[in-house]
UniProtKB/TrEMBL annotation:
Keywords from the named record: Glycosyltransferase, Transferase
A molecular function GO annotation: UDP-glycosyltransferase activity
Family to which the UniProt record says this protein belongs: Belongs to the UDP-glycosyltransferase family.
Cross-referenced Pfam families: UDPGT
Protein name: Glycosyltransferase
InterPro entries, per the entry: UDP_glucos_trans, UDP_glycos_trans_CS
UniProt entry tagged with the keyword Glycosyltransferase: yes
Highest taxon in the source lineage: Eukaryota
Gene3D superfamilies on file: Glycogen Phosphorylase B (3.40.50.2000)
Native species: Rhynchospora pubera
Amino acid sequence: MAVETGCRGCQSIRGWAPQVVILDHPAVGGFLTQCGWNSTLEAITAGVPMITWPMNADQFYNEKLVGEVGAKVGGPYFENQELIEAETIKNVIERVVGEGMEGEAMRKRAKILKEKAKAAVQEGGSSYSDLKSLIDELKARRL
């Protein structure tokens, strides 16, 4: 993500922005994403609610794994895309970052997913155990 920005007490970012660092910043209330797998995982591990806008390939499948608010139409390479009105985009952003119960529920769900992701990679977690099993299997086959 290429940006040039700055905020009070923050260093200015020029050129390529460190997305993981930005998503971890407490001022981030939501993340508009096309749902590429890396960005999806980065948002989950940061505990940031996503506004999903998939464009092609696996992005639609990734959105279905995490999305409550997102694209309703689309296809590979923008075939049959409908124009999304500015008012619709504004309303979705307000739903996610707003002070209402719906936004609060989305933020709470994002925090729960963050904790689950953290637990999965710690010793004894599912990702940790699966990776360990894979390594053990590869070692056994090498013998």
